[in-house]
Amino acid sequence: MEKKPIKVGLWGIGRAGHNMHCSELDQFNDLFTIVAACDIDPDRVRILQEKYHCAGYTDGKQFLENPDVELVSIAVRSTEHVDYALKALKAGKIVFLEKPFALTPKGMEKLEEALKRYPGKLYFRHNRRFEAAFNHIRDIIDSGILGEVFEIKLRRHNYQSREDWQTLLDCGGGQINNWGPHLIDHSLRLLESPLESLWSDLKHVSSKGDADDHIKIIFRGKNGRVVDLEISNCILLPSDVYSVYGTRGTLVSHDESTLHMKYLDPAMELPKTHSSPGTPRWDSGYGDADTWPWIEKTIPVHPANGYKMTEIYKYLYAAIREGVPFPVKPEEAFAVIKTTAEIKKQNPQFRIQEDLFEGNEE
Ligand SMILES: NC(=O)c1ccc[n+]([C@@H]2O[C@H](COP(=O)([O-])OP(=O)(O)OC[C@H]3O[C@@H](n4cnc5c(N)ncnc54)[C@H](O)[C@@H]3O)[C@@H](O)[C@H]2O)c1
Predict the structure, then answer these.
(1) Are residues 26 and 106 in the same domain?
(2) Do the domain assignments include residue 334?
(3) What is the torsion angle, in degrees rounded to the nearest 10, for the CA atoms of residue 138, residue 143, residue 149 and residue 153?
(4) How many Å is the maximal CA-CA distance in the chain?
(5) Alpha carbon separation from 138 to 69, 130, 150, 192 (Å, rounded)
(6) Which residue's alpha carbon is nearest to atom 34 within ligand 1?
(7) pLDDT grade, residue 275 (50/70/90)?
(8) Same domain, 111 and 219
(9) Listed residue (296, 326, 305) closest to 126, CA to CA
């Protein structure tokens, strides 16, 4: 079937808009054409115009009046996401919205209303949902070879002496708004059950700003599974990115390109054992799990669905042009915003003043 490229207008040509969106779109130039770009920085607009021979704007109103623009990809700062999404929807555009989709519950309600008013027009860019390691690990959990998974640890550790707007609370910064949406989404998916409770602690340790840069969240699902998440810019020796603990095996990944597993053959029945209240013999040791026939292997990351993080636009095309359900459902995006609001409630020192943003778009 012949493809009809979607005409894109980029709103915000910063590190995300320029470095991520443009290069992702460049891979699919049979599916998308960049027809317009808008940024408050005229030099950035000029560079995009030269590269893509597209229209350029420093004024958002004029940008939205361009009838050629079919899809608006919003990658301006986080504080403007809700307002700009509503403006673009009102102008008749389809919207692809960067995370964090909303910083406040009030902003989320506005997006929920907009979705009712403009059904099928608002898409949420949880691009890390398409990470290969995340998807492959979900395949392995589903396969059952690790047995019943009771705990998963997610770690994104590094050390950054960061000093941009993403470190300032008044600018909507902080890791809870930056990496938080990606990994709260992963955590909620990995629970495979409704959230029963969560405990969280946000700290500001080493960035130059005042926003959180070290996050610990423990999620518990109604199924009893625990997901223990840390996002930190304050750790010099990082832990494994993934650790998955099951009743029949363990999986770890340090680099997200290989998965290391130790587990029992699914055909093997666990030996029936019982505990004794008596005093053990001196030579009885402390348990014999190591004598079981563990299978240990390291495999390259290769998810069954073939997802790659940089290919989210391919699925957006399929959703818009071919009616294939977009893998990120709105209710999942809203669940992340609601969960983030609960975490901010538990850590009020990192809450932004809610009426500063997301209330003045009319
Ligand atoms: N999904 C991801 O993996 C990912 C990665 C990085 C950033 N992001 C998100 O993208 C957004 C932008 O982040 P960034 O790192 O690119 O920031 P940035 O500061 O590098 O870029 C923002 C751009 O928007 C422009 N801008 C600012 N205000 C504007 C306005 N009112 N109208 C038009 N243009 C305006 C700036 O000139 C700049 O070019 C953030 O919300 C961030 O959370 C997402």
Answers:
(1) yes
(2) no
(3) -30
(4) 83
(5) 37, 12, 14, 10
(6) 39
(7) confident
(8) no
(9) 326
CATH code at 183?
A: 3.30.360.10
Residue nearest to ligand 1 atom 39, measured at CA: 14
Nearest to residue 225, comparing CAs of 258, 248, 191? Answer: 191
167-179 pLDDT, tens digit per residue, is 999 999 999 999 9
- Tokens for 310? 């940089």
pLDDT at 164: 95
Q: How many CA atoms lie within 13 A of 127 on its CB side?
A: 19
Range of the domain at 262: 132-278+288-300
Mapped onto helix, strand or coil, the DSSP state of residue 191 is helix
Q: Record the tokens describing residue 134, joined without a space.
A: 């995340």
pLDDT of residue 159: 96
Is the preceding omega at residue 181 within 30 degrees of 0, hence cis?
no
Cα Rg of the chain (Å, integer): 23
Using the mean position of ligand 1's atoms as its centre, give its distance from the Cα of residue 263 in Å: 43
Is the pLDDT at 71 greater than 80, yes or no? yes
Map residue 194 onto helix, strand or coil: coil
Q: In 10 A of CB 275, how many CB atoms?
A: 5
State what percent of residues in the chain have pLDDT above 70. 97
This model's pTM is above 0.85: yes
What residues does ligand 1 touch, defined as CB less than 6 Å away?
Answer: 12-17, 20, 38-41, 44, 60, 75-78, 80, 98-99, 125, 127, 178
For residues 177 and 285, what is the distance between their CA atoms, to the nearest angstrom? 49
| Separation between Cα atoms, residue 333 and residue 341, nearest integer Å | 13
Domains identified in the chain, total number: 2
- Quick count: other Cβ atoms within 10 Å of Cβ 206? 16
CA–CA separation, 138 vs 326, rounded Å?
18
